[in-house]
């Protein structure tokens, strides 16, 4: 078989990956902990057997993203492989801090390995996805996922499955356009210029341990406190870079205020924000409806999307 398809969902980091230990190998500077989503998806189909690689994203050729896809296909199937026609579709906005590269590369490695008959195990697929985009390594796994740094590279595991602690996530989309600075370049700038970068890296193990313990005890308040703290620290590192990197907009701040209001009213919710202006709100199921309604009526919010926690990337049949 030379053709295969796969689906992956984005993941949202609660303890963030922000910085690279090795830029060439795309090895993260620290570990991270994330949740894999369920209802947002990217589907990738790979067909080996054309002369030159070709990438079609949501029906449109995407030449600027092709070199990264080509490198990823080489790493999965070897440099001597045939050319590939790769088609991708997502049900959410890409390149705006919504982890589109995570679901895209997670789905790509699964589809490419299957189409080329490589038979890679999940751990190897995760490593290959991580080389293309660090956060993508986590989208191979279900539910609460920890990416640890080891002497051999990365080690990714599920800490708790989606049914073991069924949280809900509301994504408040404030801006659908692509971002000005990609996360990879932004991380490098932070490492080179932000006076806060090294202390961010040094304190990461503490945050990972706190989040791991909160997940093991299903302690929502503790998980929320550590996730918000970790997110705000990451953005402080960016604000301290030269030139500064500010992904937030007025609407981002308005959403954060909405979350504070929900918390004051007794709802179990917390926010996190990645390399973009969107706000992701994690909640216990009983607070999801109130959170969705409050975010949807927050000024500057264009739309909201809701998702449960989901499973890692897998093969699918696409017509
Ligand atoms: C803020 O995985 O997009 O979402 O490895 O350069 O592709 P590259 O970076 P990427 O960075 C994700 C950054 C983040 C935090 C996170 O997901 O942990």
Would you mind describing this structure in some detail?
By secondary structure, this protein is of the alpha+beta class. The chain folds into two domains: 2-161, Ribosomal Protein S5, domain 2 (2-Layer Sandwich), CATH 3.30.230; 168-308, GHMP kinase, C-terminal domain (Alpha-Beta Plaits), CATH 3.30.70. 36% of the residues lie in helices and 26% in strands. The chain contains nine helices and 16 strands. The protein has a six-stranded mixed beta sheet with strand order 8-7-9-6-1-16. The chain has a four-stranded antiparallel beta sheet with strand order 2-5-10-11. A hairpin with a 2-residue loop joins strand 7 and strand 8. Helix 1 (66-77) crosses helix 2, helix 2 crosses helix 3 (122-132) and helix 6 (204-216) packs antiparallel against helix 7 (220-239). The model has no long low-confidence stretch (mean pLDDT 95). It binds ligand DP6.
Order of helices and strands: EEEEEEEEHEHHEEEHHHHHEEHEE
Strand order of the largest sheet: 8-7-9-6-1-16
**Domain count:** 2
What quaternary form is this? single chain
What is the strand tally?
16
Keywords:
Ribosomal Protein S5, domain 2; 319 residues; alpha+beta; globular; Alpha-Beta Plaits; binds ligand DP6; 16 strands
